[in-house]
Amino acid sequence: MLTVLCRKSAGSKVSRGSKQWPPAKTVNSKRSQSSELRSTKLMSKVKPIVPPNFVENLFKQTRFTKKEIVGLCKLFKKLVAIYGAESTSSVAAMSSVVLITIPTQGFDRLMFREFLQNEFGITTEEILTDRIFCFFDQRNDGVIHEDEWITGLSVLLRGTQDERIKYTFTIYDLNNDGFITKEEIFSLLRNCLVKHPQDEDPDEGVRELVDIVLRKMDCDNDTKLSFEDFSTSVNKQSLLLEAFGQCLPSREISESFLNSISSVQ
What we know:
Layout: H1 2-11, H2 24-45, H3 52-61, H4 66-94, H5 109-120, H6 126-136, H7 146-158, H8 161-172, E1 180-181, H9 182-193, H10 202-217, E2 224-225, H11 227-236, H12 251-261
Antiparallel strand pairs: 1-2
Helix pairs in contact: 4-5, 5-6, 6-8, 8-11, 9-10
């Protein structure tokens, strides 16, 4: 009797109240779809390395391609980290004070001076590197930010003749009054040329050179150079673009720097 009952139980169908489990393939398929959906949502929340609107704005303002702008953004972060670390270690070497390093948002004056020298071979006196820094620092907050760096490089590396003339005139106009005065020319040339201050009168040769420059470039003979004077002279003789000190990278260095942008990871 017990044997018969067992056989009936084994051969009977599952009762109505018991749970019906779906096939294993169906479960796995649903789990896969759910996982893909979660991944898609997570990916949609991840911000790109360089925001598209940031690239678009700089594309309109500069002479760089969008791909170059993305490369410059990556390079900016790397260079700021490198020169920031070097700047901190240099200060620490000269001081016994323990430094607390705060991540910077860009180049300070010391870091930017190192950048100009190492990357572009611009080794001019401090008076000129400070002027170049001020040209880049459009916000005038003592830091060259990412967008300011790219906008400034557009002039240095891809600027038209008119843009480069305006740039160099701005650098040489030390007091920002719209003129390069006789005194400013003397200061600029003296810093570039006087290497042996122990000479009897090291400034005499500089004064003579200033007079020569003014006779050549001062079109209206008012003993100072207006933008029109400077622009006219440079367009006649391109070598006068950097007459009072280097403030632009050479063509070879510019091309090498631009070629390196595409390889930045």
